[in-house]
Each structure stands twice: as structure tokens, then as C-alpha cells.
Amino acid sequence: METKEIQRNLLNRLALLQKAYETNLTKVYELFDDEAIHDFRVAIRRILAFIRFVEIFCPVEINANLHTLLKSNIKQFNKLRDIQVQIQYLINFLKKFPETIDFLVFLKKKEKKQIQKLKKVITSSNFDNSGEIFYYRMHLMSLKCFQKIDFDGIIIVLKDVFREVEKAISNIIENDFATFHKTRLAFKRFRYTVETIESILSIPKAKVKELQNIQTVLGEIQDYTVTLALLEKFSKGDLFKFSNFVEFIKPKREGKVKEFWEMLAILEFWRDYIMKN
After folding, report:
1. Residue 191: predicted pLDDT
2. Looking at residue 258, what is its pLDDT?
3. Residue 163 sits in which domain range?
4. Which of residues 85, 116, 148 is at a domain's end?
5. 185 vs 20, 89, 180, 248, CA distance in Å?
6. pTM of the predicted structure, to 2 decimals
7. Do 22 and 111 sit in the same domain of this protein?
8. Tell me: the pLDDT tens digits for 171-207?
9. What percent of the chain has pLDDT over 70?
10. Closest Cα partner for 28 from 114, 119, 134?
């Protein structure tokens, strides 16, 4: 692919990402439910991945400025999103484990406080960064460093983020779930980088979907870990009352760990792809 076509492709990608940001922000304003919040956070993460990609070639201040604004956007919703995931999980198993009702009430109260806080945040004049994203897109066109992004440079970036995934996997320690979380973050960065350049590299969508599936499994491992941590905090370290629920969660988490290891065969495609390019 010619350099000019690469730039056009990247700018088109950013235009689509901006539209997704604006559409999902509108849904947050109108609905403020967990699905709208999730989709808005994903839209932001994709723009952040785009900025990180461009910054490798163009380490200019405009990248850092927009990155900071969008990071602030997403950070506002992190705690609420975690709470809502735990609430939904508890609701699904409340009949089987009625002893968790007090924990569920505790989380619902935390959710209510977060929602009240966030509804004030999102109505502030500096929360919507659509204008800043548009300005960023227009500014990119004039940057010589952006105009020089080529196929070889893109492959180097892909190699680097893939190495981060392999390094994270090699550092996983059994029953140290913080190491699984770090691996999840590495996969997330790799997946979003791939999405940024998939049309330039003609990567099959099925292969991108496989990355998303691994990220989902790692996310479920993290959700189980967070649930156990929140439960321990709520019970002040005395988990006896919830022992049946805890013993139910732990094997589920172990099952997801096993599923994760079995899914790693898909990395052979990426090793071969990178070697051939």
C-alpha cells in the first residue's frame, strides 16, 4: 500500500472512531445504562489506541493533550463499570446463594452514589471532547511525520506490541492473578493496535475476533478476581458466611484460566504473519 493511501486509510479510521465516540456519548446522555457506558468506554479505548499508534511516528504535544483528555473521560467510568459487572453477576446467582443479598445491597448503594456523581460530571461543559478529536484529525493532515508513515514502520510497531504480549504471557505466575491482568492489558493493546491497522495490512477479521475472544476470557478472570476482592473487603476478611459462594467462584475462575491457555494456539498465526512481513 502506498504511503498516501496509508494516510488516507488512517484518517478515515479516525473519522469513524470520532463518529462512534459521539454516537455512544449521546447514548450515555440518554440512557446511562451499563451497555451504553461499556460502548462509550470501548469507543474511547479505540481512539486512545489510535493516538498511541500515531505517537510512535509523531511524538508531538497534540497527541499527549488529547490522550490526557480521553483518559480522564474513561477514568470517570471505571469504578461504576466494575460495580455494575459484579452486580449483574450476583443477580444471576442470587437464588443459588441467597447469603449474598447483603453484598448485593452494598454494591447497589455504591452504584447509586457513582451514578449521581457521574451524571453531574457528564453534563459539565468540558466532558465532551468531540471538538478536540476533530481538531486532532485536521491537524494530523499537516504533520510531515504523519505523512511519512509507511508499511515497514507499521510492521515494526506490530512486532513491538506482539512482543509485549509474549513477554506478559511468559511472566504469568500460577495463582498470581495480577499477572493475568497485566497479560489482559497487553492483549488489549495488541488487539486495538491491530484494529487500527487491519485494513492497511488486510488482516482477516476472524483473526481480530480471536484476539477479542482471548481478551474476553482474561476479562472474566479479572471479574472473578475483583468479585472476590470486593467480597473480602465487604466482609472485613471474614468470608465464612460466603464460603459456598467463594468455592463456587474459584473453580469457575480456574476454568477460565484453563480456557485461556488452550486459546493461545491462535498466536501462531501472528508469529507467522510477522515473520513473513
Report:
1. 96
2. 98
3. 150-277
4. 148
5. 22, 22, 9, 26
6. 0.92
7. yes
8. 999 999 999 999 999 999 999 999 999 999 989 999 9
9. 100
10. 119
